[in-house]
Amino acid sequence: MIETKALTKTIGEKMILRGVNLKVNKGEAVAVLGTNGAGKSTWLKIVAGLLKPSSGEIFLKGQPRKKDDFEQQKVLGYLGHQSFLYDAFSPVENLKFFARLYHISSPDTRINKLIEDVGLAYFKHEPVRSFSRGMIQRLAIARAILHKPEILLLDEPHTGLDQQAVSLFNRLLLDLKAEGVTIIMVTHDFQQISTVCDRAVVLRKGRIAEDELIRGRPVSWIHSLYEGEAATL
């Protein structure tokens, strides 16, 4: 579904990614772990088309990644540190705007369902500028999946969410996973990894250091994998 081969990224004199070879198959839910500066978000942004690699290859559904290819881009849903929302617009207005960008016809039913799914139905006509950080994150989640992407790229998606929102979001992710959506999640939240993901990839200094199946593993084992101390059985 997604594959990067010998992917590198240099910014100034610093090499962020050092030949990352990573393949994620259709329907997998993969956590990408690592300390700050390990290259996690950089790899995700390159796959999303937001950054250009210094060298290497990217394949999406078996085809080379092309710049400004709308057909490839609409396969992806991306949730980063920026919400990409317009603060003067309401949730409904924001999602209608993005529906037009994705050429979604008659989006009202889907928009209303997504707003309800992320727990914002009561605020659907209020301007986003009045929202808390967690409410903005809820709406950004709805934006990322509005066009029913086949691949969902998530960068610290649980940031700012309260426990109710975390439960709603995880249930949404598990439903998408059951539908065959491929999920790649950059995170430091080991508890959420154990709930949603099947596999964990650990980056250290721009290289893949660990790549293990984690389904059924305790949170403590995932933490030890992150620390490079896990025993392989």
Structural description of this entry:
It is a single chain. By secondary structure, this protein is an alpha/beta fold. The chain has a domain at 1-69 and 151-158 and 184-233: Rossmann fold (3-Layer(aba) Sandwich), CATH 3.40.50.300. The chain is built from 8 helices and 10 strands. It has helices at residues 40-48, 70-73, 91-101, 108-117, 133-145, 163-178, 190-196, 219-227, and strands at 2-11, 14-24, 29-33, 55-60, 63-64, 76-79, 151-155, 182-186, 199-204, 207-213. The strands form 2 sheets. The chain has a 6-stranded mixed sheet with strand order 6-7-8-3-9-10, sandwiched between helices. It has a 4-stranded antiparallel sheet with strand order 2-1-4-5, with helices on one face. A hairpin with a 2-residue loop joins strand 9 (199-204) and strand 10 (207-213). Helix 3 (91-101) packs across helix 4 and helix 7 packs across helix 8. The model has no long low-confidence stretch (mean pLDDT 92).
Name the quaternary structure. Answer: single chain
The helix fraction, in percent, is: 25-40%
Largest sheet: 6 strands, mixed
Distance between the termini: 28 Å
Strand residue percentage: 25-35%
Round the mean pLDDT to the nearest integer and report it: 92
Structural class: alpha/beta
Corresponding CATH superfamily of the domain at 1-69 and 151-158 and 184-233: P-loop containing nucleotide triphosphate hydrolases
Low-confidence stretches: none
- Along the chain, the helix and strand elements come as EEEHEEHEHHHEHEHEEH
How many DSSP E strands? Answer: 10
